[in-house]
Amino acid sequence: MLRLIDEYLNFLTVEKGASRNTIDGYGRDLKRYADYIGGLALGDIRNIGPDHVIAFLAQLRADGLAAGSTNRTLAALRGFHKYLLRMGLLDRNPLVHIELARVWMRLPDVVSREEMSRLLAEPGTATPTALRDSAMLELMYATGIRVSELIGLNVNSINWQVGYLIALGKGEKERIVPIGRVANESVKRYIDQARPILLKGRRCDKLFLNRSGGGLTRQGFWKIVKKYAQRAKLLKKIHPHTFRHSFASHLLEGGADLRSVQVMLGHADIATTQIYTHVTSERLKEIHKKFHPRG
User: Fold this and answer.
1) What is d(CA 213, CA 128) in angstroms, rounded to the nearest whole number?
2) For the domain that residue 56 is a member of, what is the CATH number?
3) Does residue 228 carry a catalytic annotation?
4) Is 46 a catalytic residue?
5) Is 244 a catalytic residue?
6) Is the pLDDT of residue 184 over 90?
7) Does the annotation count 294 as an active-site position?
8) Does residue 60 share a domain with residue 163?
9) Distant-in-sequence contacts of 81-84, Cβ < 8 A, 24+ apart
10) For a FRET experiment, which of 27, 38, 40, 152 has its CA 20 to 30 Å from that of 250?
11) 137-160 pLDDT, tens digit each
């Protein structure tokens, strides 16, 4: 099975253009699956049935694997078995009637608009790094882009006249996302006043730079978010993806349609975006309970 997994991952890379992160994640999931199936001594992959797959997923949950990771594993298994079916190595797909475990999926962490405003106000404009940090946080909240997309932005990724950026998402797919007035002004201020100082006479096409004049890393941005969340004294656990979750949730609360939010987030399946409708519903229940006389 390990050989077949390697062939499938190569197929995803070459034929489907899957990202490095996807390949690495699927590789870990499928090798764990291969170890489990190998312990069952089924003799042939054609003997794998739905019960075996369900038992494997249940074992992952019992071992404490997060809901989102469990669903990613199921997606990896679904694609792998479809590939085996296509190659004539299986007679049937044992996952055909197994749905994504949505009841296991934890609702994404979001912050209120007031909490987000407090967080965005923290960097200030006193230093070049403060201007950079403010621009990054504003841009994350204004566009809902992923951290990998943020640090991957180049100086030419933003169309200033029209007011949008081009994000390079999963599978190297490009999408256009509006920026908004506040983020637009914040990024322009950073480019005019701070970026030349951080660049230190060097050449780098990355939009957001570290103190050495090179591109920022995911870990570097994570530290920045953590620092300002602590300064803002937010009680919730804030991480880079909180900006993406809050972006989507606040848009839907404001009346945006689900399809538009899906496009801006770059979700291939609208079912992935629908998780935010549950977040909005929970928020509405909180408001009703707090303000209605009989809530």
Assistant:
1) 12
2) 1.10.150.130
3) no
4) no
5) yes
6) yes
7) no
8) no
9) 83/8, 83/11, 84/4, 84/8, 84/45
10) 152
11) 999 999 999 999 999 999 999 999
Distance CA 58, CA 76 (A): 16
Find the largest Cα–Cα distance for the chain.
67
Q: What is the mean pLDDT of the chain?
A: 88
Q: Are residues 134 and 241 in the same domain?
A: yes
Q: Which of residues 104, 130, 149 is at a domain's end?
A: 104
| Residues 142 and 242 occupy one common structural domain | yes
Distances (CA, A) of 212 to 16, 64, 186, 204, 209: 36, 40, 22, 11, 8
Among 189, 267, 278, 283, the one annotated catalytic = 267
52 and 190 share one domain: no
Same domain, 66 and 100: yes
Left if phi > 0, otherwise alpha if psi is -120 to 50, otherwise beta: which for 144? left
Catalytic residue among 81, 132, 206, 244: 244
Domain interval for residue 287: 113-291
For the domain that residue 136 is a member of, what is the CATH number?
1.10.443.10
Q: Is 170 a catalytic residue?
A: yes
Check if 267 is active-site: yes
Beta bridge partners of 159: 164
**Residue 149: CB atoms within 10 Å:** 22
The catalytically annotated residue of 72, 81, 132, 146 is: 146
- 165 and 278 part of one domain: yes
The number of domains in the chain is 2
Point out the catalytic residue in the list 32, 170, 175, 283. Answer: 170
Residue range 13-67, pLDDT digits in tens: 988 888 888 899 999 999 999 999 988 888 888 999 888 888 888 888 778 777 7
